[in-house]
Amino acid sequence: MTTISANLWFASEAEEAARFYCATIPGARMGDVVRIPPGGPGPEGGVLLVEFSLPGTSVLAMNGNPGEGFTNAFSLVALCADQAELDRVWNALLDGGQAQACGWLKDRFGVAWQVVPEALPRLMKAGDGAQRGRVIAALMQMVKIDAAALEAAFHES
């Protein structure tokens, strides 16, 4: 059976990033750390590849990026159970990173994330077009998402 994993290509921070993500995202787990063998590529014993999992996603983190960096064309989405979890994950990922808009940020490694409450996809599938429109309008005014404000926008009359 074919399986699919996300691959993040770092300059040299693969293990540091994997450990950080596993400490930040509830339910994440570290896997194997593959070291560089004699003869390279790179210094013997250095980290070549790190396997880890974020809930629902297998991820490979590699070292050796030639400087291409990350873009917003690939991002990770953290769907949080409630506002407290969202706040904790957002604050941890944002430390050393940069906030963007609508729940988007770039972490200190340059990886793009959208940190969203479970309320956002739930509200976007419920109600009528006017309710969903109010949720989108509220979302467009936010940097970090406020689940209660989304709920309030949905229920406005």
What would you say this structure looks like, in words?
The chain is elongated and about 70 Å long. It has 5 helices and 8 strands; from the N terminus they run βαββββαβββααα. With about 160 residues, the chain is α/β, with parallel strands linked by helices. The N and C termini lie far apart (about 50 Å). The strands form 2 sheets. It has a 4-stranded mixed sheet, covered by helices on one side. Strands 5-8-7-6 form a 4-stranded mixed sheet, with helices on both faces. α3 (about 120-125) runs antiparallel to α4 (about 130-140). The mean pLDDT is about 95. A hairpin with a 5-residue loop joins β7 (about 105) and β8 (about 110-115). The longest helix is centred in the middle third of the chain and has 12 residues, at about 85-95. It folds into 2 domains: about 1-65, 2-Layer Sandwich (Signal recognition particle alu RNA binding heterodimer, srp9/1), CATH 3.30.720.100; about 70-155, 2,3-Dihydroxybiphenyl 1,2-Dioxygenase, domain 1. The protein has helices spanning about 15-25, 85-95, 120-125, 130-140, 145-155, and strands at about 5-10, 30-35, 45-55, 55-65, 75-80, 100, 105, 110-115.
Please write out the topology.
Layout: E1 6-10, H1 14-24, E2 29-35, E3 47-54, E4 57-63, E5 75-80, H2 83-94, E6 98-99, E7 104-106, E8 112-117, H3 119-125, H4 129-139, H5 147-155
Parallel strand pairs: 1-4, 5-8
Antiparallel strand pairs: 2-3, 3-4, 6-7, 7-8
Helix pairs in contact: 3-4, 4-5
Pfam family, one: 3-dmu-9_3-mt
Protein name: VOC family protein
Organism: Neoroseomonas marina
